[in-house]
Amino acid sequence: MSDSPTPQTSNQAPDAPVISQELLEILACPIDKSPVKLVGDRLVCLRNNPVKKLLNGQIWTVAEVRKRPGHRFSMTLEADDPGIKSKAKVVTHEAFFSGEEDTLSWPERRQYDEFTFGYCLTVHKAQGSQWDNVYLFDESFVFREDRRRWLYTGVTRASEKITVVR
User: Fold this and answer.
1) What are phi and psi of 15, to 5 degrees?
2) Backbone dihedral region of 123: left (phi > 0), alpha (psi from -120 to 50 degrees) or beta?
3) Residue (of 49, 55, 27, 34) closest to 120 by Cα position
4) pLDDT digits (tens, 9 = 90+) for 81-139
5) Burial (CB count within 10 angstroms: exposed 0-12, middle 13-18, buried 19+), residue 103
6) What is the DSSP string of 76-124?
7) CA distances from 126 to 20, 46, 147, 163 (A)
């Protein structure tokens, strides 16, 4: 298995967070709704935060996690881009890791930095990123007239090796 996220379409396809959790199961990684066990894991940012220099779609590696009251966690993250030597301190809610973020009201949700597992990404979310090895689930048929553009975007995420699954 590759150490890179798997670009995946979100249009009429399984949810990327669901696939990320399924990949963790296949790799025999314990899935716990608690982010306390996430040190070393890759996360994808789900919402911009200009103050903390967080970009939607940016991949981070968890360096440290601390449990806080109310299902909250503070984390220190390191940018997964070798060209960026950046760390970020974030506060997030465990609902983002269990697929239950819709249970949070907007006023509650907006006080957190939004992250989820970054082992599987949509092609849209992967735009602008590149990895050595990529697995691409070809669902270009969903995009009809934009099929070739979608496939090009997915294929060009790999710098060394791509495996296309049809």
Assistant:
1) -65, 135
2) alpha
3) 27
4) 767 778 999 999 989 888 889 999 999 999 999 998 887 888 888 887 888 888 898 88
5) exposed
6) EEEES-TT---EEEEEEETHHHHT-GGGS-HHHHTTS--EEE-SEEEHH
7) 14, 12, 16, 16
- Which tokens is 146 given? 């934009």
pTM of the complete model: 0.69
Residues 147 and 26: their CA atoms lie apart, in Å, by 29
**Lookup result for tokens 């849209």:** 124
Residue 54 CA, chain-centre distance (Å), reads 13
- CA distances (Å), origin 162, targets 3, 27, 41, 95, 133: 12, 20, 22, 32, 6
Q: Which residue has the tokens 């996360």?
A: 43
Q: Is 111 exposed, middle or buried (0-12, 13-18, 19+ CB in 10 A)?
A: exposed
Kindly give, in sequence order, each residue whose CB lies less than 8 Å from that of residue 160, ignoring residues fewer than 6 positions away. Answer: 132, 133
For residue 5, what are its two tokens? Answer: 């996220």
